[in-house]
Amino acid sequence: GLRAACRKMSPAARGGLRQGVAVALAALAIGAFHVPQPFLCVLAAQLTAGFAPSRPAEFGWRLVAAAAGSLGAMAVLVLAPNEQWISLPLFFAHAGFGTIWFFRKHGAACGTLFAMGAASMFAEAFIFPQRDLCFGLAHLVSLVVATLVVFPVGRFFLGWSDGGGKHPGGAADAIQVGATGVLALVFACVFLPEQPTVTTVASVATALALLGNTGGIGERFAGGGLGIGVSLAFLVVFTGSGNDVGLYLLGLGVLAGCFEWAAECRPSWAAGFRQGAAMFVVGSTIFPRPDLHLTLTFERAAAIFIGLAVGCAVAVARQEMGRVEVLMARRRNSV
Length: 335
Hints:
- By secondary structure, the chain is mostly helical.
- 79% of the residues lie in helices and 0% in strands.
- The chain is built from 13 helices and no strands.
- α2 (11-31) packs antiparallel against α3 (39-48) and α4 (57-79) runs antiparallel to α7.
- The longest helix is centred in the last third of the chain and has 41 residues, at 294-334.
- It is globular and about 70 Å long.
- It starts with a helix and ends with a helix.
- The model has no long low-confidence stretch (mean pLDDT 87).
């Protein structure tokens, strides 16, 4: 059947087909709900489609992780609606320690969904208090839809995993994720207040990708530039071809799959190509209606670059602090 045919494909072709199907189905599904910022659903699908589920119960845990991240951030907003000196530390603890707990106990997909839920719920309401409940619940719907789409896709293409891929986690990892989210939100307030969700979600996703490994930072920025370039070209061609929904979904899926195919074929540049895929889907998600101006695409691209820069900076700072601690410990032992 279809699964046997997929297994005969090369790993790169199978991975590209998996990502393309997940992204296209997520865009189609979230378009039916007409939620604000639908790119969150497509981005969640792109980020989590590569994680094979380890057991049927993980489907439920992915839903729990998305809901816990969103509702926990909502609780922070209720407890301290106008006291930023209280809400920011609470968000730091919630996003950092909650994400790492799910990451350690239930795998990378659950940790990613928790982080995205926490960041999207808190960031939007932090700058625009009037959007707290409606936007937050819309973001939760986006993450739930992404999970409903991605889980069967992952099951079909990847089968059941052996439960690997979990991260040991620890307080230092939680501090890194929490600090990244808070700093990204502060930078969004200063430089791009219209895109707090994109900035914060991009930063925590980067932080998770760089836990214990700061390699490929230059490739990530290069891949991000490639992704936004492909996104702009795709939107120009699509709008010039008559705004056909079928062609849009086909093009979105094919190009997202090409990024994953390139990542599988060139492992040394995998981080860059996957960063490009994330940039591409955020910039290209215009379903169910296109953006009124391309400036919105540029704003989202700039927000991702800010989040990427913050995530990389915090990861590098943590690495350098670790080196300093090791050096100081050696000096103490040598005395």
